[in-house]
Amino acid sequence: MARDAIKEVRREQLIVATIDVIARKGFSELTLAEVAETAKLSTGIVNFYFKSKDVLLSATLAHMVGEYRRYWRANVAAATSPTAKLTAMLEGDFQRLVANRKTVTVWYAFWGETRWRPDFMTECQALSREFQAVASDLFRQLDTPDRDPMLIAKGFSAMSDGLWLDMLINPKETDRDTARRVVRAFLHGLYPEHFAADAAEASTSAA
């Protein structure tokens, strides 16, 4: 394996370990030694790739943002109509790959630090604005002139964030399927001609 490829594998190994540690222990107890132990590498290797805990955390957030962006962008690109694209954004936010307890826990850990970390704030704001801009353009293609598509896009985005939180604190009441149904009810109320109210009718609505 080429040296650059090895470096990339090691970096990703350490980032994945960092995600695991944050999910288990939170930010306050995360140390480079704990990351090294989780990755089954030496602390010296961690220090070689990431000069400090702050650098490692920035790289971890950038990794999560990049993964999420590639995922939802690919889903949107694969759909063929505004309704189908918005449905893909909705469905993507509540797939197991994205909306699992570990990943959502880590997202909230980073969001909670944005007040004190301008670099975290910049990453999260850019992702949120991009998601909302794409959703706004799609809602504009469905909408009538008397509605503000950006306001609807903000609500659409905020519902996912809020439902992720509800899945963390009320897991017995809110699962991925319930979350999908909540957002579908919101979309159906605004666009009954485009979105089915019930998840069972989703494939028909998105066609």
UniProtKB/TrEMBL annotation:
Pfam families: TetR_C_6, TetR_N. Coiled coil: none annotated. Keywords: DNA-binding, Repressor, Transcription, Transcription regulation. Residues 8-68 form the HTH tetR-type domain. Residues 31-50 bind DNA. PANTHER family: HTH-TYPE TRANSCRIPTIONAL REGULATOR BETI (PTHR30055:SF234), HTH-TYPE TRANSCRIPTIONAL REGULATOR RUTR (PTHR30055). This is Transcriptional regulator BetI. It comes from Dongia sedimenti. The lineage of its organism: Bacteria, Pseudomonadati, Pseudomonadota, Alphaproteobacteria, Rhodospirillales.
